[in-house]
Amino acid sequence: MRQNGTINDKWNRRTLTPAEATDRLLACVRPRTGFEEVPLAEAIGRRLAVDATTKEPIPHFRRAGMDGYAVRLEDVAAASSEEPCELEIVEHIPCGAVPLRKLERGQAARIMTGGMVPEGADAVVMQEMAEAACGHGREYVRIRKADPRGTHLTPIGEEAAEGTILLRAGQLIGAGEMADLATLGSSRVKVFRKPRVAILSTGTELLDVAAPLEPGKVRNSNAYMLAALIASAGGEAVPAGTVPDDCDRAERLLGELLASDADAVVATGGVSVGDYDIMADYFLRWEGTTLFNKVAMRPGSPTTAGVWKEKLLFGLSGNPSACFVGFELFVRPALLAMQRSYAAADWEFAAYLAEDYLKVNAYARYVRGRAELREGRVEARPIGLDQSSAVLSIKDANCLIVIPPTKSGIRRGELVKAIRLGGVIVP
Ligand SMILES: Nc1nc2c(c(=O)[nH]1)N[C@H]1C(S)=C(S)[C@@H](COP(=O)(O)OP(=O)(O)OC[C@H]3O[C@@H](n4cnc5c(N)ncnc54)[C@H](O)[C@@H]3O)O[C@H]1N2
Ligand code: MOO
Ligand SMILES: [Mg+2]
Question: Peptide bond before 405: cis, by omega within 30 degrees of 0?
Answer without folding.
Answer: no
